[in-house]
Amino acid sequence: MKKALVSGASRGIGAACAKALADAGHSVIVNYRKSREAAEKLASDIGGAAVRADVSDPEAVRDMFGVAGSIDILVVNAGIAMQKLFTDTSFDDWRRVFSVNVDGAYNLIHAALPHMIHEKWGRIVIISSMWGIRGASCEVAYSASKAALIGLTKALAKELGPSNITVNCVAPGVIDTDMNSALSPDTLSSLVDDTPLTRLGTAEDVANAVTFLCSDSASFITGQVLSVDGGFAV
Ligand code: NAP
Asked: pTM of the entire structure?
């Protein structure tokens, strides 16, 4: 049994990852920012603990690790989306997306690494997006932040390989979570039309891939981007 932390695990993909890792026999820390009730309920259901921290705040992340202790498996999942024309995206908008999606990854990985390096064992899975591979119109900040995570994954995998720490990325397609609740039925249906497997993904579809990458079966896989998108980005 290993100890895992999933960021942004109160809802959606993060919550499914926390459940799946608990089902795989790990003890799981459920990180959240606002949804305390949901995080605490999930933590109690899976025998884990809920710890609040805004991942964009380095001090809050350090405090969270102070409470949570050492982590063997880190799932960098917390993220925010933003739909705006690039010309309407202010520098503050841009910074907000990068502070959660990219600075958050930096803060979490920095806090988790000393123990993993000491133990010469670790699994890091970062949730990017197919838009980080393909780019999405009206989501330039989001796409750029998710592309940054792919670069981070590949470079860090090379640096941490000798320490027996794998770093991989999962790139989901259109997944049925709150993040897409603002999309109109027409937009969702055209996204489904563009998905070869002709359906929206579920949070569990993504969690299954994450759990595999954290398992012993994936011990020789690092620096990879695994698309879980029903074939959308092919
Ligand atoms: P979601 O339903 O909107 O849930 C987002 C989660 O992130 C919540 O648990 C939220 O916690 C947490 N969170 C947001 N900002 C945070 C912060 N600053 N600090 C800590 N936690 C924070 O999103 P989702 O669809 O599950 O997405 C999860 C990840 O998958 C994101 O990185 C997203 O970009 C990526 N992704 C999603 C899709 C999709 O179609 N849904 C596709 C590709 C990639 P609180 O509720 O406590 O605020």
From this structure: 0.99
pLDDT in tens, 111-136: 999 999 999 999 999 999 999 999 99
Query: Atom 23 (ligand 1): residue with closest C-alpha?
Result: 179
Angle at 173 between CA 171 and CA 178, to 5 degrees: 105
73 closest CA partner among 127, 112, 33, 23: 112
Report how far apart the first and last C-alpha atoms of the chain are (Å, whole number). 36
Q: Among the atoms of ligand 1, which is closest to the Cα of residue 36? A: 47
Average pLDDT over residues 163-187: 96
Question: If pLDDT is split at 50, 70 and 90, which confidence band does 209 have?
Answer: very high
What are the domain boundaries of the chain? Answer: 3-176+203-227
Instruction: Check if 106 is active-site.
Output: no
By most ligand atoms within 8 Å of CB, the mutation choice from 5, 7, 13 for ligand 1 is 13
Q: In angstroms, what is the span from residue 162 Cα to ligand 1's centroid? A: 31
Strands (E), 156-228: 165-172, 225-228
CATH topology of domain 3-176+203-227: Rossmann fold (3.40.50)
Atom of ligand 1 nearest to the CA of 179: 3
